Amino acid sequence: MSNNNTVPFADLSRSYLPLKNEINQAIQKVIDSSAFILGKEVEKFENKFSKYLKVKYCAGVSSGTSALQMALKACNVGNGDEVITTSHSWVSTAEAISNVGAKPIFVDIDKDSYNINPEKITKCISKKTKCILPVHLYGNPADIKQICRIAKENKLFVIEDAAQAHGAKIGDKFCGTFGDLACFSFFPSKNLGSFGDAGAVVGNNKRLVENVKKLRDHGRISKNKFGLLGLNERMDGIQAAVLNVKIKHLEKYIKSRINIARIYSKLLLNHCTTPTIMNKNRHSFHIYPILVKKREYILKKLRDNKIDARIHYPIPIYRQPLYQKEYQNFSLPITDLVAKQQISLPIFPGMKVYEVQTVAKCLKNILNGKRNT
Hints:
Number of strands: 14
Mean pLDDT: 94
Radius of gyration: 21 Å
């Protein structure tokens, strides 16, 4: 097979260009009003995003990482506390826990969903446990109902890391609406992406979300009064303006991702391990992950054929230099296996069917030992 065209991992211009004029006008409006931090555009986005999710409250913040940290602080998670979470995620998931003074307790993942395995949570609960922090990884819903049941039985908070799960659902209910709080990232490549760093904390508990709003703004309780030890993690007006335009198209973007994923899964059936979706769940496919043996060889061959495939996440968090000393006698076998075999295939709104077919055909040829160039 000869492949003369590059297939990018993501091409953000394909979702920007059709909205270019509208986005540019929205940005100019912020410039003209000088409402660069918080302001009307942020309030507008908070209302739109909470309405989309069918959740009562939303606080726009500076990033998905800051969202996690402030959600933990809002729930009074701090020094001496333990938070049960997954090691198969971006480092922010654990980093936020450590940055509030708590300790991440890593639990192995489910072999099908790659999310935290609820069956392994209970035995990790101790007197120090304050919270469970599951991740809806790649846009695939975690078993959040079971997690919430365990949390309720043990009087624990649940904070959902939904940074990759915009639009993912369990039945008719969106991921990010089950726990006490949920955290989203609007990093540019996310299903709903801004033009820089931005995030949000959502929930139905007014007190907790109000705590986040105070924390993001230096602990401010009125114009010149500060009642909490806060942070400077406010959402920018320009990012909110971009999100206010793009949120109108979020469902279209998700449907595009789901359609691409269906084509991949059909073409790659019986050739490699493709994503498993539980009945009644909607996987929003921020990432389309596959598992293969001889990953480095396959990845090189894909790139030789100008297909930009990636890896998420090759080093589990507990094996990172940041944590490896503390967890040196620790083992998460399924996490380790997935970390060694996972490849992320190109997927993004505006990706052409022939590009999906090109990736699948090339991958099958590599897996079958056929000549690809």
